[in-house]
């Protein structure tokens, strides 16, 4: 039984795994996406410093099991 | 300003600002010298080519690849173990997560460097990226290791943020300005508001869940680099889980050694207590047993298949040129298993009444074992007529059986001592496991590359360059560890404080007596 290369989806997969440079594009994408995600996470945590009120040296379940809006 | 318990400050922050002592300077000096020597030989390798290594046709993968697999395995100590313990809410994890996460990052850096060293022509590195095709497991490896490294650095940094702010707000007087700035910048304006804590907890929880599959993928893919070829001994479906289990196993071993070093240097016996050793030790025993199961299963497939191209791989490991490293690996793991399992079960009264548990028996069996080793080794080295008989097959078999029995006797006789020194005995077992796991990587890579399909057989002996670069890599790993813990607290201060509060609350809970049934 021949591989069903007549279907565009398999042609796409063939192109995806065999084209030089596609692998590196995915590395670049994964790396950039991770870095962007981590940067945004850290920025979001940093932004929380502007909140007024008390500060805590450490949390307890009583603190972090409540949502921010409460 | 974030307040800190004075005891935590004394134990965890003040040592960071103490002047460098002689031990630190000496250790750093020796490690730097070893790194320098390794770097020198690496630059020589760049100029002269890979001919300075022991590699040559058909052996293109050798010690550097063994080290790569070994270090990436060690990296599973941290992030994976720390993440699993966080996700499962294991409270006893708190004092050891920082050490575990640091191991991950440093082992990943050193492990990834091995690939660059193995490439020889470093200028060809961009080609792997420019022409990288997604069908190649090496490409999958670059993707997963990149994700793992970035994730691990973030996972190390997130719980560090509140600690950096605590240090920033509690600096001892007379601290150099650069260190003040260092902690201020790195703490990213942390104040410990409710919003910050909530976001941080969410981020840590997400990262803990995210990092587990990434870590599993990393060592699976490393195994697939080998398993996706048709090389004898490698083309096995069991390799993925076998490598992951081996990685976690060696990782726990490295974690035990590192956390004991930190415990000793910083005097943290109160925080890194026997509880941590006991619980992590149980996981260690389970991993040891699973590792034996996988090792047996991997070799069973080759033994029962009896394929002409695969059997030589098993033969060289069981009784050929790789037998010493194979059986040493098995011995390391078996002794580690014994140390972890038997002494804790030994009853005091039994030990005092039975001769084999006495120190006298230890001395006796050690002397007899030394004599037996001499009888086994000497005839192979020099021609001594009256010892020639021990070179015969029957005599050698008897001597080996006696030696194994003697080693068992020795282990029985030191059981009392091992039980009395639980931390030392776990460190001994960990060292054996780490050595055993390095040998395992050796026994997987080398027998196959020296016995490929189209070449009858070949040999490989590591050159001075390879050995020096390996020593330099281990030294680099240790130096990074030392410097890191001179700048950052070895235990997560806020997590320790949080755990303390939870423990106090739990101790106030009254546990009801069990209900009496019947009369």
Give me the Rg of chain A, rounded: 23 Å
Helical stretch count of chain B?
20
State the distance separating the first and last CA atoms of chain A. 63 Å
Report strand % of chain B: under 5%
Tally of strands of chain B: 0
Strand content of chain A: under 5%
* Low-confidence residue ranges of chain A: none
- Residue-averaged pLDDT of chain A, rounded? 84
Number of domains of chain B: 1
Structural class of chain A: mainly alpha
Query: Biggest interface pair, residues each?
Result: A-B, 39 and 46 residues
What spatial form of chain A do the alpha-carbon principal axes imply?
elongated
Task: Report the helical percentage of chain B.
Answer: over 70%
Portion of residues within helices of chain A: 55-70%
Low-confidence stretches of chain B are: none
> Which shape of chain B, going by the Cα principal axes?
globular
Major sheet details of chain B: none
**Number of DSSP E strands of chain A:** 0
Structure, described:
- The complex is a heterodimer of chains A (70) and B (519).
- Chain A is mostly helical.
- Chain A has helices at residues 8-18, 22-47, 61-64.
- The longest helix of chain A is centred in the middle third of the chain and has 26 residues, at 22-47.
- Chain B has one domain.
- Helices cover 73% and strands 0% of the residues of chain B.
- Chain B is built from 20 helices and no strands.
- Chain A binds chain B through residues 16-24, 26-27, 30-31, 34-35, 38, 41-42, 44-49, 51, 53-61, 63-64, 66-68, and chain B through 2-4, 129-136, 139, 142-143, 146-147, 150-151, 154, 157-158, 161-162, 166, 188-201, 203, 493-495, 497-498, 501-502.
